[in-house]
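Handout, tutorial session.
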Amino acid sequence: MRDAALGISGEYYIERDDGRLETLSTLDYVRPILEWNELERLAIQHAKGNVLDIGCGAGRVAIYLQNLGHRVVGIDMAPGAVEACKMRGLRDAHIMSVAGLNFPESTFDTVIMFGNNFGLLGDDEKIISMLQELHRITTPDGIILAGSAEVEKTDDTGHLRYHELNVSRNKPKGLIRLRVKYKGFIDDWVELRLASPNEMSVLAERSGWRLDRKYQRGGPYVGLLVKS
């Protein structure tokens, strides 16, 4: 994240627990809005009022919204991410887990969870608890813009085998165990829950939210959640 904030181009790797590697650019964390994917560009138009950016990274979304005049709070578990955000001018950024949100009631009008961050906690029951807490700290007309993916929309045999493995382990097809590698550093293994729109809708409805609309191209999508 610090390298991204400094404009240093490099590659990092996301390793899945079956050995599959995905190569990504550090500069993805600082892309201007014209270089975002179409789904995020469409969804971000719904952002309003005070904003909480969960998993803010190097501030790609938070700084864009701050520059539009929104009051934005960014949170991330990675100290380097919070440092990068502050280096780039985000006024309010904190090291904080989405499992331990520490804000008063009705603080935010919009919650951003781009980059598959809807599933950061992995476990469905933990996601429900998170959504309930987001319900508490958002205003009566608050919204969530949540990024995820419909994993079954693929013909990649590697992904399909992984889905079958999850089913054999009595786990959701979209539950992924992964870790990040960069410049010789290796992160701990974590679980990420990729939820289909139907799964997101079910989790939302158990938490006081409703999936109002979605922007989708193939598997990836951004869902707009409103209070039910």
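The second record follows below. Compare its token runs with those of the first.
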Amino acid sequence: MIHPTLDHLRVRFAAKGSHDFPSVVEPDWNEPLTQPLTAAAVLVPLVPRKTGLTVLLTQRTAHLRDHAGQISFPGGRCEEQDASPIETALREAQEEVGLSPDQVEVLGLLPEYRTGTGFSITPVVGLVHPPLNLKLDDFEVAEAFETPLSFLLDPANCLRHKIEYRGSMREYYAMPWEGYYIWGATAGMLVSLRHFLLAVD
């Protein structure tokens, strides 16, 4: 198992910025862009617990237009009033799960993550200081839960599956954990975090 410490996280983000790593796309997605990607940002919330760092994840409600029912980070489209992706991620986290921006210590950004569904996502990694006192937006969020960061960073727990999409087979990452199926863009951004923190090639 891999057990990154908070000190390691701070040192890594202080030493390297997202510009040191290339943009990441979903595996096996190399179609030419036919339209501009929609800018979005998510908060990758790391929670220090006595047993180690965890990642706060949400399950989206089943009726949403985009990625209904999937496991995701708090986040969404960048709005005109947002000054930066960090502001987008913090605003969305407050709206979706009730995290106050004052409760989040932003550690840094991961490389932009481009999805086959037309989004260019900036992952904002932040340390969330307990107690969380979450207040879920019932319209968007069905559930919130925490998963050990060490589990999510362990390559042994990262699977590659295939699905038929628009007439061809595509690969995607998946990290099943205790009945939750973490996959797609969320799993892909966790792989990006692993690369960033541990310099895994």
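Points raised in discussion: The chain has a mean pLDDT of 85.
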